[in-house]
Amino acid sequence: RRRVPLTIEETLYVSSSESLKRASLGFDGLMADIYWIRALLYFGEKFEQQRGTNQRFDVRRLTLLEPMLNITVELDPRYIAAYHFGAVFLPEINAERAVQFVERGIRNNPGEWRLYQDLGFVQWRRGHFREAAEAYARGSRLPGAPAWMRTMPALMLTKGGDRETAREMFLRLYEESDDPFIKQVCEEQLMLLDQSRER
Length: 199
What we know:
By secondary structure, the protein is mostly helical.
């Protein structure tokens, strides 16, 4: 089956979650699933498109990723997978809005320790080590949080931005994520860090 060109597909989305809620007739969760799938398909297509022309993958060129993720979580504020995905990729587009996105996830899901991990990750990438430490500390106190979360605040405050901290962050994110895109990005970052350490 012939695919619709991506440039046309990019114009075929509704930008208002309120309009979608009215149109979904109460099936907000189903509509959120549809938008989540569209976000992943859009991401995957752009990823393949850039890699196919031997370009370095640049998330900043994915102009619809942030709006699609926002619509997904506006339709279903408990869509944890969308918050995780946003925490990894939105900082490349706009770090401040990425923090706001994950904080919204925490407000809507205060018992989800992984969102505090995500917030710590975003703050660490911004170089805001004290804020990253606070996020990990808050998350470590939640039921179900793994023991390593308790070590992260000290790691953030003492080691800040060194390569070993970076390696630890990407390794933890890789281990905790079920998303193949996030795992692939983490693998690539770990490989680059290992190559850098060997040099």
